[in-house]
Amino acid sequence: MMAFMVLLIGLMGWQAAWGQTFSRTEMAKRVGEQLRQVLQENHPSLAAGSVFVRHTLNLPDGSVNLVLDATEVDDRPGRQNIPVTVVLNGSPYAVVDATVMFRKKLLVATLNRSVKKGEMISGTDLSWQEKQVTRGGYDFVRDFRQVVGKAAQRPLRANIPLRAQWFNDPLAIERGERVRVIVKSGGLTIRTIGVAVKDGRVGDAITIRNPESHRRYLATVIAPGQVKVEGL
């Protein structure tokens, strides 16, 4: 009988201690509402997408509020974990993590037309568009000079945010091409013809083959169809 009474008192105490349930769905909703205000005041280029809180909280009876620290929000797109303080009856009670997917408005370069792999990009091919991006770490093109005069490394569609790594300098020499070879040795300069063994861009060191002796040597690409050798 005594054991039963102790158990009953324990259950009554538990019910008194945990008088309300704060569901993770409700917490996520209220975090989202607070985030909109925080972003409007501190990060106007950011927008909060999905908000996820992992656990439901069992709380004592009382007034519950959430406090979100604006300094914990980074000005970048992508997933961020934001600590949120649960305040019960005016006092901090617990801290929970809210996982938020942020979108960010960026002014990025886009193509006015689709291009094929290897096509050269000119200034008239480009325009600025404001886009919302959901992932950080991308090297988006923020200056036309990053891509004008360069070649697309892959087929690209119009109106998508461009990334700098999708472009490189155009080929100055293609494999199998006959090229002009400038040989400098001391004060002597010799000009001859060679065959490129591989593709090359200006500044690349590529292998050249002598079409008569078939001897191979390294040369530096200095211009389209032209290489230089120091002291052959």
UniProtKB/TrEMBL annotation:
Keywords tagged on the record: Bacterial flagellum biogenesis, Cell projection, Cilium, Flagellum, Periplasm, Signal
Compartments, as annotated in UniProt: Periplasm
Start and end residues of each SAF domain: 106-168
GO biological-process terms attached to the record: bacterial-type flagellum assembly
Name listed for the protein in its UniProt record: Flagella basal body P-ring formation protein FlgA
Family to which this protein belongs: Belongs to the FlgA family.
Keyword Signal: yes
Function of the molecule: Involved in the assembly process of the P-ring formation. It may associate with FlgF on the rod constituting a structure essential for the P-ring assembly or may act as a modulator protein for the P-ring assembly.
Gene Ontology cellular component terms for the protein in this record: periplasmic space
InterPro entries: Flagellar_FlgA, SAF, SAF_FlgA
